[in-house]
Design goal:
The chain is 50% helix and 11% strand. It is built from eleven helices and seven strands.
C-alpha cells in the first residue's frame, strides 16, 4: 500500500477539497480514522506532539498511508462519479463490485481512500448518525469510538487513542451518546476498557524512549485515559449488556476484520 507522498499541508488540503466537492454534489462525506482524529486535534499542541510518537519516536509531521471517509450508500453512484470522473482517482474494481454496498476503495497516486457507507464495520459496529456534523470530520465522539472499538490494536492505535483522550476528555463530549453505545454492547465496552488500559501502558513505554514526550504531556494523557475508564465504569448498562457480560470472553465478542488491500 502506498505511503502518503504529500506533505501535511497539501494532503489536508486535498482532504478538504474532497469533502467540499462531495457537499457541492449532494454526496456528503466526512473524514474518520486516524486522519479524522488528527485533523481535529492538530491545533492542540500537547495532543499533536503525542500523536507524532505513533512510530515510537517523534516525527516532524504525521505520515498517513490511507484516508478513511464515511458516507451514505444511497449516494454511492455520486461518490463514484466524484472520485473517478472528476478527481481522476483509480477505483479498486474488485472490492467495489463485491462490497460496494458497504465500502468503496479509490487510489490517489500517493495514497488510498476507503469510503465506508452507513456503518463503520470493524471489530464493533458504529452506526453513522444523520445528518453528518458540519465541518470536515465525523464527530469527536464517533472518532473516539472508532479507536475504542479496535480489538487487535497496534502501537499507532494506542497513541491515537491516548492523543485523542488528551485532546478530548470525556467531560467535554456527548456523554449520553457514548453511554447509549457502550452501555448496550458489552463486547464493545470490554474492548474499549482493554484499549484504554493498553494505551496507558504504552505511554509508560514511551516515557523510556531516548527522546520521550514531555512528562506533563504523558501525565495529562494518562489522566484523560483514566477519566475515560471511570466514565465507562459509571455509565448505566442495559439488560442486553448485563446478559452478555455473564458469558464474558468464553465466546467471541468481536468481529474479525479482514484486510481488503
Amino acid at each position: 500500500m502506498p505511503v502518503v507522498a504529500l506533505d501535511e499541508a497539501p494532503f489536508l488540503a486535498e482532504v478538504e477539497r474532497i469533502v467540499s466537492m462531495g457537499e457541492q454534489r449532494s454526496a456528503p462525506l466526512r473524514v474518520c480514522g486516524s486522519v479524522g482524529l488528527y485533523y481535529r486535534l492538530r491545533d492542540r499542541p500537547e495532543a499533536r506532539a503525542l500523536f507524532l510518537f505513533r512510530d515510537g519516536a517523534a516525527k516532524p509531521a504525521p505520515v498517513f498511508k490511507d484516508l478513511d471517509l464515511a458516507g451514505w450508500e444511497k449516494h454511492s453512484s455520486r461518490v463514484y462519479k466524484l472520485f473517478v470522473r472528476e478527481l481522476g482517482y483509480r477505483e479498486d474494481r474488485e472490492t467495489n463490485a463485491l462490497f460496494g454496498m458497504y465500502r468503496n476503495i479509490y487510489f490517489h497516486p500517493a495514497f488510498s481512500v476507503d469510503v465506508f457507507f452507513d456503518v463503520l464495520r470493524f471489530s464493533h459496529e458504529i452506526a453513522l448518525r444523520q445528518p453528518f456534523p458540519g465541518g470536515v470530520t465525523l464527530s469527536v465522539e464517533d472518532l473516539m469510538l472508532s479507536k475504542l472499538q479496535i480489538h487487535q490494536t497496534t502501537p499507532r492505535d494506542l497513541v491515537d487513542l491516548a492523543a485523542g483522550a488528551s485532546a478530548f476528555p470525556p467531560d467535554r463530549l456527548d456523554r449520553d451518546y457514548l453511554a447509549r453505545v457502550l452501555g448496550d454492547d458489552w463486547g464493545f465496552w470490554y474492548d474499549a476498557q482493554q484499549n484504554l488500559e493498553h494505551a496507558a501502558a504504552h505511554l509508560d513505554g514511551l516515557a523510556r524512549v531516548p527522546e520521550p514526550p514531555p512528562a506533563e504531556t504523558l501525565s495529562r494523557a494518562r489522566e484523560s485515559l483514566r477519566a475515560y475508564r471511570q466514565f465507562l465504569d459509571s455509565i448505566p448498562k442495559t439488560r442486553r449488556w448485563e446478559k452478555r457480560r455473564l458469558r464474558g470472553t468464553a465466546e467471541p465478542w468481536f468481529e474479525e476484520v479482514d484486510e481488503v488491500h
